[in-house]
Amino acid sequence: MLLSLSIALALSQPDAQALERIVVTGARPLNTIESVKDPKAPQQPLPAQDGADYLKSIPGFNLIRKGGTSGDPVFRGAAGSRLTINSDDQMVLGGCSGRMDPPTAYINPQNYDAIRIIKGPQTVLYGPAAGTVLFERKSYQFDPNQSPGQISTVVGSFGRIDGNADYIAGNDQGFWRLNASYSESDDYRDGTGTALNSAYQRWGIDTQFGWTPSQDTVVVAAWR
User: Fold this and answer.
1) Same domain? 154 vs 86
2) Do the bridges between strand 188-189 and strand 217-223 make them parallel or antiparallel, or are there none, so unpaired?
3) Does 59 lie in the same domain as 110?
4) Which residues contact 212 (CB under 8 A, 6 or more apart)?
5) Could you tell me the CA-to-CA distances from 28 to 7, 87, 185 in Å, in that order?
6) Which residue range(s) make up the domain with 70?
7) In the beta sheet, which residues pair with residue 179?
8) Mind listing the pLDDT tens digit for each residue in 115-135?
9) 3-state secondary structure of 96
């Protein structure tokens, strides 16, 4: 649920013109320790390229830059094993003990339905941690009345191209869901035209096959 606040400013003189309206929009927290974000909603400056890139825009989160374009999220000074990252109801671990590839490097937030943030160790459902981030799908039941998916593309300077696709097909007995992402950029050039080593290319695909014999039962096989 979004809480929108509109502020209109005007001068007191009779002949003065009204100033531009300012609209401030923020996400209303579910309670004092939990909030939910919609990763499919448009955001600035650009769509996040991994989970950490999205989290750094949320108050309370910082980022430790890792190799390439990845980052390790820090919540209120807690990072590493003190911050639990869950994707599709399972904990995601980093690529090595040195966290050169943090768990959020394998997560494309635009391909999820919601990001749930639990602040502090109040819950024990996901293990002891200073915070928990859940990348969630809202439902595994196929609904033929809903859109089968979405595609988004961003093109920018220095050869910047981002693309995301989320598609689902099925019936009342099961479904198949495909998520794909691609991102690349050339070297950045400063004001003198000097190229700075910053080019990258990354892509990812994950797919799910689900059997839904009833409204309360789902069996999922996933490949990532």
Assistant:
1) no
2) unpaired
3) yes
4) 140, 141, 142, 172, 173, 174, 175, 218, 219
5) 18, 23, 35
6) 29-136
7) 166, 206
8) 998 887 766 777 767 889 999
9) coil
